[in-house]
């Protein structure tokens, strides 16, 4: 089945219990794809199966190597292969850099970065063998620009951008497509969605006007974010179905504006001290470009 027809493709989606992951699961199921829905607690996604033969639910803790290997092996055994991986599972921990809890920060990196990588590594052997497949890593608009009180979360999503770009260059010659998705402000519809995010209290008044203001903004936006998870899911499905879709998929007005802002800032900074930067190279050095 190396050239699976569109509706015969097998989707493996992580983090399907709530939010974007659940919206993606519902839309791919309704579209007639074969879908492996996953969550740490399998009971939270079993109702997505609904007796359908083309859908199966699996327990998957992406921070547990054995859980990842077992889930991917079971999905492959049941469906035959994984054609599309959507790495959606993620959490957020927000605090001032100085005031952060090390254990909470490390756990977030384990989920958002290392867990994501574990699932990618588990599906790649099959994709390489078939010379086909599509890996979709969900980052965030917070991987484009950074904010006070959000730095560690920003760092995890920056890492997803960098790792995914490197991966795309590694596997493109093997017939494997890669997409990184940067949504902004997807609406939280339930308290279970919000449980994936933690806002640490401010300990020092020095951060009241920066971290404190951001914390208030995040709390006030709860349930009122502009982004529709259903529309975001629809855009991701469209990107997978369209061979001409871009590597970086920015979803939401804020994400698109942040991308434009970052592009301008990089160009402005490079130009401002261009002479200083260029003077660092030896005069006989060749023009080096990383492509």
Automatic annotation (TrEMBL):
Family annotation (Gene3D superfamilies): NAD(P)-binding Rossmann-like Domain
GO MF annotations in UniProt: 2,3-dihydroxy-2,3-dihydro-phenylpropionate dehydrogenase activity
Oxidoreductase in keyword set: yes
Pfam family name, one: adh_short
Listed EC numbers: 1.3.1.87
Domain of life: Bacteria
InterPro entries (UniProt xref): NAD(P)-bd_dom_sf, Sc_DH/Rdtase_CS, SDR_fam, SDR_oxidoreductase
PROSITE patterns, per database record: ADH_SHORT
Leading EC class: oxidoreductase
Keywords: Oxidoreductase
Homology family: Belongs to the short-chain dehydrogenases/reductases (SDR) family.
NCBIfam families membership: PRK06180.1 (NF004824)
Listed name of the protein: 3-phenylpropionate-dihydrodiol/cinnamic acid-dihydrodiol dehydrogenase
Taxonomic placement: Bacteria, Pseudomonadati, Pseudomonadota, Betaproteobacteria, Burkholderiales
Encoding gene per record: hcaB_3
């Amino acid at each position: 089945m190396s050239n699976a027809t569109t509706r015969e493709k097998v989707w493996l989606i992580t983090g399907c219990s709530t939010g974007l992951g659940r919206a993606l699961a519902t839309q791919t199921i309704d579209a007639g794809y074969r879908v492996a829905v996953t969550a740490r607690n399998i009971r939270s996604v079993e109702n997505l199966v609904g007796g359908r033969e083309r859908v199966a639910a699996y327990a998957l803790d992406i921070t547990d190597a054995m859980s990842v290997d077992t889930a991917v092996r079971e999905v492959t055994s049941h469906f035959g292969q994984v054609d599309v991986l959507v790495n959606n599972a993620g959490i957020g921990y927000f605090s001032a850099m100085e005031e952060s809890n090390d254990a909470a920060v490390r756990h977030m990196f384990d989920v958002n970065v290392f867990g994501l990588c574990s699932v990618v590594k588990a599906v790649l052997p099959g994709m390489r063998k078939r010379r086909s497949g599509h890996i979709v890593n969900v980052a965030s608009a917070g991987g484009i620009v950074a904010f006070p009180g959000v730095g560690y979360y920003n760092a995890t999503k920056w890492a997803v951008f960098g790792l995914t770009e490197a991966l795309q260059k590694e596997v493109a010659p093997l017939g494997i497509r890669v997409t990184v998705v940067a949504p902004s402000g997807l609406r939280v519809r339930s308290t279970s969605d919000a449980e994936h995010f933690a806002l640490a209290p401010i300990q020092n008044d020095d951060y009241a006007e920066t971290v404190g203001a951001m914390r208030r903004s995040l709390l006030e936006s709860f349930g009122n974010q502009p982004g529709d998870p259903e529309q975001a899911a629809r855009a991701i499905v469209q990107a997978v179905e369209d061979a001409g879709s871009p590597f970086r998929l920015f979803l939401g007005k804020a994400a698109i504006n942040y991308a434009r802002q970052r592009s301008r800032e990089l160009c402005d900074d490079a130009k401002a001290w261009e002479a200083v930067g260029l003077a660092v190279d030896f005069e006989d050095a060749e023009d080096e470009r990383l492509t």
